[in-house]
Amino acid sequence: MIMKSDEYKKILNENSLRITTPRLDIIKILRENHKPLTISEIHKKIKNRKTDLATVYRTLNSFIKAKLVNEINFNDEYKRYELKIDRHHHHHIVCNVCKKIENIDTCITNEIEKDLKKKGYADISHSLEFFGTCSDCVEEDK
Amino acid sequence: MIMKSDEYKKILNENSLRITTPRLDIIKILRENHKPLTISEIHKKIKNRKTDLATVYRTLNSFIKAKLVNEINFNDEYKRYELKIDRHHHHHIVCNVCKKIENIDTCITNEIEKDLKKKGYADISHSLEFFGTCSDCVEEDK
DNA sequence: ATGGATGCAAATGATTTGCATGAAG
DNA sequence: CTTCATGCAAATCATTTGCATCCAT
C-alpha cells in the first residue's frame, strides 16, 4: 500500500516540481480540507512555523501553473485554492452569513460552451459560484 | 422628452443618493460603455480631472450598496463594475488573449437554484463568467 | 556542483480611511 | 444650517520581488 507522503511526492514528481517540505505540507493541507482555502488559512495550518507566507504564495502560484490547483473567487477579498486531483469539476454555494461552503456537482454550462465553440472560441473555461443564505442562518434570523 | 442628465438624476434620487458631479459622470460613463469597467478605467474617462480616485471607489461602493451596480470578477487583479439598470441578468465571455468582452444572454442556472431553494437556501445569487480564446486570437496564433 | 526553492525584508499596488473643506437638500 | 460628499494625503492589506542562502537533484 502506498503511503500518503509517497503519493504527494508522486504528484510533485509528475509535475516536475521539486519535493520540498513546504510543498508536501501544502498538498497535505489541501487534501485534508475538502473546501477551497485562502492563503492565510493554508499558512496558519502549517505546523512547521518556519514556512514563510511568501513561500505559500509562491507555492500556490506554481501549483496553478502546473494545473494542480484551481483558483476560486468568491467575490470577497481573498482568493481561494482547491486541489484539482481531489474531485471532478464542480461548483460551490457559499452562505452569505456563516460563509459555510457546500459543493455542487451539477454542471450546466455545457450548452453555453457549445455555443461559444460554434462562435470560434477555443480553450473555454468558466467560473460559476453561488451565494445564498443557508437554512441554518435563515432560521437564526427569525 | 426627458434629457439624459435628468434621467441620471432620477436614478440617483430614487436611490436616495445626493446628486453630485462625480456621480452623474460615473453613471454616464457606465451607461455609455456597455461592458464592465475597472475603477481605473472609469477614473480615466472622467473629463473633469479634479475627481479623485478615492471618490470613484466610494461612489462605486455606494452604487453597489444601492444595488445600482454589479461587481464582476474576471479572476484578474481588478474588479469591474456594470450598471444593473442597463440590461437584464447576463454573463460574459472574456478572451484570454485580447481581453475582449462579449455578453451572454442565456442563463442556465435556474435548475441549480431550484435545487438550492429546496435545500433551504434563501437570497440565492450567482456569478458565472466564461474565459476562452476568441476566434480572432486563435487565427493570429497560427 | 548548480539551478531552483526558501526566508527575510522591503517594495508594490489596489483599496480604504481620517480629516478639513465644500456642496446638496 | 446640517448632513453628506469630496479632495488630499496617509494608512492598510494582500501580494510580489530582490537577494543571499540552502537544498534537491
Describe the overall structure.
The structure is a homodimer of 142-residue chains. With 142 residues, chain A is α+β, with helices and mostly antiparallel strands. Chain A folds into two domains: 1-85, Arc Repressor Mutant, subunit A; 88-142, 2-Layer Sandwich (Dna Ligase, domain 1). Chain A contains six helices and six strands; from the N terminus they run ααβααββββαβα. A three-stranded antiparallel sheet of chain A has the order 1-3-2. The first copy, chain A, has a three-stranded mixed sheet with strand order 5-4-6. Chain A binds chain B through residues 71, 73, 75, 91, 93, 95-96, 104, 106, 108-109, 111-113, 115-116, 119-135, 138, and chain B through 71, 73, 75, 91, 93, 95-96, 104, 106, 108-109, 111-113, 115-116, 119-135, 138. β6 (122-133) of chain A pairs antiparallel with β6 of chain B. The first copy, chain A, binds a DNA duplex (25 and 25 nucleotides) through α4.
- Counting DSSP H or I runs of 4 or more residues, the number of helices of chain A is 6
Alpha carbon gap, first and last residue of chain A:
52 Å
**Helix-strand sequence of chain A:** HHEHHEEEEHEH
Sum up the overall morphology of chain A in one term. globular
Q: Strand fraction band of chain A?
A: 15-25%
SS-based class of chain A: alpha+beta
Q: Care to count the β-strands of chain A?
A: 6
Uncertain runs of chain A: none
Q: Quaternary status of these chains?
A: homodimer
| Number of domains as seen in the coordinates of chain A | 2
Which second-level CATH architecture of the largest domain in chain A applies?
Answer: Orthogonal Bundle
